[in-house]
């Protein structure tokens, strides 16, 4: 899971990508969480191209990515000391902070809200790109580089598959063509994303009245945040800002996904197999006797970090097998697995009753 470095050979690609972004185009780039679809955060027309390319609802905000050492006061106002402590502790890294948006920053990135999500990624290619873009003083609005609601990409090939590109499609900057439509102009290579699920999002914009609020769990836990600022983030309230990746249905492959506890796997899989239903399995402790009747399977590590690293790739792989159902072994439910369970819960949303329907065919 070691991240690649931004080598000298990459610098031409990074410089060209920065030029595309400065002209208002779209570039996909690796981060330690997932690959992002980037545009100039201060260019409303460029940000609009993200929404168009993804098919993203315009009331769903995006996160602004900045280089290490960026001036937070340029982008935000009323930054509490606790937010700066979290920046010091976890940036660069997989933590997004929701803060009050500075009036100079267009509301396109925040879907009209007075807050904005800020993050500094740790992937070396992302850092190199952010330092090259506008001399390191710009910011990239960058949700995950996939069609809205689909499984997030954790490799450059996932991005190409999502947007119907091949290895020869990206990399060409053709004058005004790169900025004339909501098209992805370049995909920067960066290996597999080391974390594998999206960043933790903490609302710090209402600290004086609501304290910190955990809007989306991720690799950085609520307890880690509490260890830094002395306050455990609360659960989202109805007045909390809208944030990326928090809709009930999200991160979903085309094939229906259902979760079952390990003790219910065998009987359900046997019934489906007897009906001729093709089932793809994902789990962390699947015995050979169980997987023998599966159409396809992917066993993930039994630790939460390893599981998160492989989760989206596993969902994408099982989605390509021709199965009628992806059956996921329910992971442990303790705090360490909160991010994984959050993503799986959103991927199975709307799939209730799918097993019963398949058994009735």
Automatic annotation (TrEMBL):
Pfam families: Sua5_C, Sua5_yciO_yrdC. InterPro entries: DHBP_synth_RibB-like_a/b_dom (IPR017945), Sua5-like_dom (IPR006070), Sua5/YwlC_C (IPR038385), Sua5_C (IPR005145), T(6)A37_SUA5 (IPR010923), TC-AMP_synthase_SUA5 (IPR050156). Keywords: ATP-binding, Cytoplasm, Nucleotide-binding, Nucleotidyltransferase, Transferase, tRNA processing. PROSITE patterns: YRDC (PS51163). GO terms for molecular function: ATP binding; double-stranded RNA binding; L-threonylcarbamoyladenylate synthase; tRNA binding. It is an enzyme of class 2 (transferase). It comes from the Bacteria. Its main location: cytoplasm. ATP binds at residues 56, 144, 152, 216, 251. GO terms for cellular component: cytoplasm. Its EC number is 2.7.7.87. L-threonine binds at residues 33, 65, 119, 142, 199. One of its GO terms (biological process) is tRNA processing. It is found in: Cytoplasm. Required for the formation of a threonylcarbamoyl group on adenosine at position 37 (t(6)A37) in tRNAs that read codons beginning with adenine. Belongs to the SUA5 family. This is Threonylcarbamoyl-AMP synthase. It comes from Duganella margarita.
